[in-house]
């Protein structure tokens, strides 16, 4: 297989040259389709992390003092630069993750959408807001949002460019510096994205990157930043949250899921045909390595045989392949280790009585990490795939008798990241959505509609996370708030001639009148 022409040795060397490593240690970053080493990625030591944080902190002072309009202008230019270089970005994402071109291209759209949204919204959200004070007319208070300082971002491998950049954009717009730790396997695309931000005018030093295994560099990173934005597994999220809590800093944790899909009984054959490509995307997009992808499907008993046959036929027809073009619909998994994990979930299910309706096999003939789209039946909660996030192209079909049963089954999980409901009557589907315990619910789509709605906060309930990205909340979380209050004349307290009893009575009367007149 020929590596894309855009990925030259010179580009790779340039990209990793900004990663500090005083120890000189490196990690072999490989092209997933071939297993060949692309570049020796420098590994940062805890001392390197401290130095990177100090440099970021220094650069942040001038950036915070730069008018918001000038800060935003950098992102208006970066928006264009990312679109202009989208194919190189997709090449890098594919090389380091093994995903299909279609997904790599979609991923490269994400920071652009985030930039567009906050370019419009940030001036309003970050503006100083005046509120009434305790004494009408004589007092007022202002809500002032100031940057937190250095924001630490710890990112996973499944969407390295999006999680490396998109979460940094609002942090930077708000006046912070960023210290990013990408996953070792997928450091190239975020490094390239940062070089584009700098080309667009982001001051050097403001966006620092350190690389290393999570437990080696993660704790020092958390100890040297003012806020942590973490995306990854629930297990690691617990550690991050505890460490941030011990340091009395805030954090946002975007974690795993075991996401259900409920098919309603009013979907007729034609609607099912129309929606089938979106249903397949909901399950198999990014080879199932999406935190919001569907791993459980609940279908009305009467529709189950038809649905199963069509879904299995459509899943079996998906085109897998290793190619740096838009041909294959499904790419590889991130690594041979992850393939072994996905395979072990399928083998465990089969050993405990589940049936494989299609797929269930690795495809070494296509590349070292390919696994066929797999549909299972008869999965129970005793099986790994019944409760644990498989994070691969594997889904379990279930039938249900009543809607109450379907909702109960959908909610029968510790996770609460994403869900989807499919039906012709949107009002009815929305009523079901209201009953699902999940931070995101998509109607007649699997995941993209909620995730791409950048104006609406998106996060996880239950063990799927704390806090949210997107929406005003996704920008304000990167700020500390100051309450600056003004009293024009001191009237709060008894006058010289007043007893405290009289003052107390006057105060009670004032409180009643202020409520009646809606002054407070
Ligand atoms: P992971 O938790 O193993 O790793 C995520 C990041 O944390 C990596 O950069 C890793 O190096 C780092 N890390 C690991 N241990 C650490 C430690 N002790 N201290 C600090 N950092 C540490 O997750 P993963 O396997 O890379 O990613 C897949 C998981 O991410 C899945 O569970 C998926 O659902 C979740 N995810 C969630 C979202 C979301 O928005 N909710 C998005 C993408 C992925």
Give an overview in words.
This protein has 520 residues and is α/β, with parallel strands linked by helices. The chain has three domains: 9-255 and 471-479, 3-Layer(aba) Sandwich (Aldehyde Dehydrogenase, Chain A, domain 1); 259-455, Aldehyde Dehydrogenase, Chain A, domain 2 (3-Layer(aba) Sandwich), CATH 3.40.309; 482-511, no CATH class. Helix content is 43%, strand content 20%. It is built from 19 helices and 22 strands. The chain has a seven-stranded mixed sheet with strand order 12-13-14-11-10-16-17, sandwiched between helices. It has a six-stranded mixed sheet with strand order 7-6-5-8-9-20. Strand 3 and strand 4 form a beta hairpin. Helix 3 runs antiparallel to helix 5 (101-126), helix 4 packs across helix 5 and helix 11 (269-284) packs across helix 12 (304-316). The model has no long low-confidence stretch (mean pLDDT 97). The protein binds nicotinamide-adenine-dinucleotide. Nicotinamide-adenine-dinucleotide binds next to helix 9 and helix 10.
